[in-house]
Amino acid sequence: MTGRGWRLPFRPFGVPVELDPTFALILPLFAWLIGSQVAGFAELFAQLGVDLDPAPLAVGAAPWLLGASAAIGLFASVLVHELGHAIVARLYGVRTQRITLWFLGGVAQLDDVPRRRGAEAIVAIVGPITSGALSLLLWTLLRSDLFAGGTAFVMAYLAVTNAGLAVFNLLPALPLDGGRVLRSLLAIPLGDARATRVAGAVSRIVAIALGVYGFLTLQVFLLAIAFFVDAAGRAEVAASQARRAFEGRRVREAMTPDPVAVDLGWSLEQLRRLRAFRAHTAYPVLDVDGAPIGWVRASDLDRGEDETGVAGLLRPVETVAADEDLETAVRRLAAADAGRLLVVERDGRVVGVLAKADVVRWLQQRAG
Question: Is residue 75 part of a domain?
Fold first, then answer.
């Protein structure tokens, strides 16, 4: 398990894949929903031209095996969709930190938005194209009459759902692919900031429409998607505003200078007394020249052995240069194990600490 999710033991195209805890809930739910409607699905696929006899598929354990197979195939299809984004993003020099499969599907977490004009649209559109191509491939194989029974059922289900996945993701709402295409194209005449505001407004309209339709048709999953689209659209607009605020800014402008530091030779009792007067989440450990050795988390103090001292609780340190671009540092900060970075000068001396709270405070001061 890594962070909040479970890291899979393989990396397709070098991209880490994680399963969010919600995946453990949604996968069996989808398997049950599909399995309980096998007969209805089989009749629908037969109307679409797939020669299926519904009767054997609904006997004994068959529906539940088919439901589980189709649910696993569905999330595998989502993974292929997200890999399409990751591969094309790599062509623009943007790394994918991870792909996460979760309650509402999947998300490829990129290091950055591709900055070349129109690049975000290309990276985004490849997802629906990938899903559409997968649907077409499955449907072509089905029409060859090489598959029958349960195999044909699962293939038909995945062909239909991949087509639906492609169409749904083309909705012009952030963070869906269609919303990213819209923003990227609008940015050509309007610029990034205004394009994001317009795309955010469109996203809200789409979210309201999805929510109303989901409410009227009693589709709880669609309501959840509507709330997600609305929240994610707002987050995209806020992130765009933050990126503009970060432009040309350096880490030293947002950091907390002269952090409270401790020596490697301190005892835990000394550090506990310090915590009582100067409470912090973590304390940097420095050498005699002021260079970083590591972190000691306050939460570890009560679990540590007194005889080991500070050295027994030492955690790896992550540093950032005081003159580094603030936006780059914030992206690193989001993935930092300690939730903060030590800020160092060129000679290696620690001059400050950059935490998420520092960034929020700095943004608030700028807005005020």
Answer: yes
Q: Using alpha carbons only, what angle is made at residue 334 by residues 332 and 336, rounded to the nearest 5 degrees?
A: 65
What is the C-alpha separation between 102 and 194, in angstroms, rounded? 31
Assigned domain for 272 exists: yes
Look up the domain containing 362 and give its range: 251-367
Residue 73 domain-assigned (yes or no): yes
67 and 185 belong to one structural domain: yes
The domain total for the chain is: 2
pLDDT, tens digit, 9 for 90 and up, residues 317-353: 889 999 988 888 887 887 676 678 899 998 889 999 9
Alpha-carbon gap, residue 107 to 175, rounded angstroms = 10
In a domain, 1, yes or no: no
Is the domain of 53 the same as that of 153? yes
Burial class (CB in 10 A: 0-12, 13-18, 19+), 262: middle
d(CA 317, CA 296): 10
CA angle, corner 361, sides to 360 and 363, nearest 5?
65
Task: Give yes or no: residues 69 and 197 share one domain.
Answer: yes
Asked if 95 and 134 sit in the same domain, the reply is yes
Amino acid 367: pLDDT: 66
Do 183 and 52 have their domain in common? yes
Rounded Cα distance between 332 and 343, Å, is 12
Other beta carbons within 10 Å of 311: 13
Helical (H) or strand (E) element with 197: helix 192-216
Q: Which of 246, 271, 289 lies at the terminal end of a domain, its last residue?
A: 246
C-alpha separations of 113 from 94, 120, 164, 168 in Å: 8, 7, 26, 22
DSSP string, 135-176: HHHHHHHHHTT---HHHHHHHHHHHHHHHHHHHHHTSS-TTS
pLDDT lower than 50: segments of the chain: 1-3
The domain boundary residue, chosen from 224, 246, 268: 246
Q: Kindly report the pTM of this predicted structure.
A: 0.74
Asked if 285 contacts 314 with a C-beta cutoff of 8 angstroms, the reply is yes
Neighbours of 357 (CB within 10 A): 12
For the chain, the C-alpha Rg in angstroms (whole number) is 25
From residue 13, alpha-carbon distances to 17, 98, 252, 275 in Å are 11, 11, 37, 46
CA 314, 318, 323, 326 torsion: positive or negative? Answer: negative
